[in-house]
Design brief:
mainly alpha, 9 helices
Length: 177
């Protein structure tokens, strides 16, 4: 069995430049390349004994680096899509005014929780929920905007509403007398 120092000296240290070049070619961004390399190193370190026993450990290390860089780009694309899907002006999210300050704070917490839930919905479902429940657009207009049938939009809104209700139920259950 190889010690940790031997593993690093024999496999990782000679590949450091190649590992960075690999993630750089994919990410084309210094910060993303550093993040991808850190994630790759974490995986490599967890699997160091299997990597050391691999017939081509250098190739395996570079594949892990490549995979982590691609994962990072995919996550950025998904994050961008979610931001676009849930891009609703802050005024649309505004909570109704209340005379009690504590009600405003609780309302803001619920609003933040709703935003997090909507962000986890599938993209079209999130857009349909926002367009119908927040922007109060009719199903026909939403269907035209999203390029699907009105029945599909109704289904998206129903599923999104059910998800919101299920996630928000514990908040209301704790606050009811």
């Amino acid at each position: 069995m190889v010690t940790d120092a031997e593993f690093y000296d024999a496999i990782i240290q000679p590949l450091e430049d190649a590992m960075m070049a690999c993630v750089w070619r994919i990410t084309q961004n210094r910060e993303n390349a550093q993040d991808a390399l850190q994630e790759a190193l974490a995986v490599i370190w967890r699997k160091r004994h299997r990597i050391a026993a691999h017939p081509k450990p250098e190739a395996l290390v570079l594949r892990i680096c490549r995979d982590k860089a691609i994962d990072l780009l995919r996550a950025a694309i998904r994050r961008s899509r979610w931001e676009q899907a849930t891009d609703v002006p802050d005024e649309a999210w505004a909570a109704p005014a209340s005379s009690a300050p504590e009600a405003g704070l609780h309302g803001q917490e619920i609003l933040q929780h709703v935003r997090r839930i909507v962000a986890t919905l599938p993209r079209k479902q999130a857009r349909a929920v926002l367009m119908h429940l927040v922007e109060e657009q009719p199903y026909a207009d939403i269907a035209a905007a999203l390029g699907c049938s009105e029945a599909t939009i109704r289904s998206h809104v129903r599923r999104g509403r059910d998800r919101l209700q299920a996630e928000l139920q514990p908040l209301y259950a704790g606050s009811l007398p």
